[in-house]
Every structure is written in structure tokens, then in C-alpha cells.
């Protein structure tokens, strides 16, 4: 399906993607922290029409916490050690240590 409009704006620390399909406008903002190994994503959906809509939103992210060489060699194996949770409108991701203990938070909060 081709959108009615589609715009992408890049800046030094973030990207903003805007799309409009009929009366539905969506914006995806992605911000990368220069100080931390983290990325924040925010999705905004606006109904510009008069009709009430029910919208289901699915999000996907490929979380990589291993060094690039290790992830390239064995990506499925590296993902076995990533743990996530849903905590008050955020999805923190961290590297799971052995025997069920967890290492420090490494990346991935959502607002």
C-alpha cells in the first residue's frame, strides 16, 4: 500500500519518520544516546478523521548485546542471553548472566 505522504528527517542524534495513510498519521522518532549504549523509540498515531478507529500496533527490534564479531558468528546463540521485561511503558533489555542472575542494563528503553 502506498502512503498518501511519507517524510524522513535525519539529524545528528535522531531520526523522525512521518507517514499518512488516509485519515491516519503516524510518527516514529528514534533517538540514540551519545553517552550510553541506548536507543529510545516513540510511536505516535493520530486519527485525523471523524470515524472512531481501533488500531493494533506491533513493534519489532533486533536486540544485540554481544560484540559485533560474536553476533555475526552466532546470532541465534547470542540472542539466547538477552532478557527483556515490560516496566511502566518501557522495555528494558539486558544481558543475562549465568545461573539466572542478570548483568547490568545495557540498552533499549521505550517511552
How does this structure look, described?
- With 111 residues, the chain is mainly beta.
- The chain is built from two helices and eight strands, in the order E-E-E-E-H-H-E-E-E-E.
- It has a five-stranded mixed sheet with strand order 1-2-3-4-8, with no helix packed on it. A three-stranded antiparallel sheet has the order 5-6-7, with no helix packed on it.
- It is elongated, with a radius of gyration of 17 Å.
- 2% of the residues are buried.
* Number of continuous helical runs: 2
> What is the global morphology?
elongated
Q: Strand content of the residues, in percent?
A: 35-45%
Distance between the termini: 28 Å
* pLDDT averaged residue by residue: 79
Outline of this structure?
With 111 residues, the chain is mainly β. Helices cover 10% and strands 42% of the residues. It has two domains: 1-60; 61-111, no CATH class.
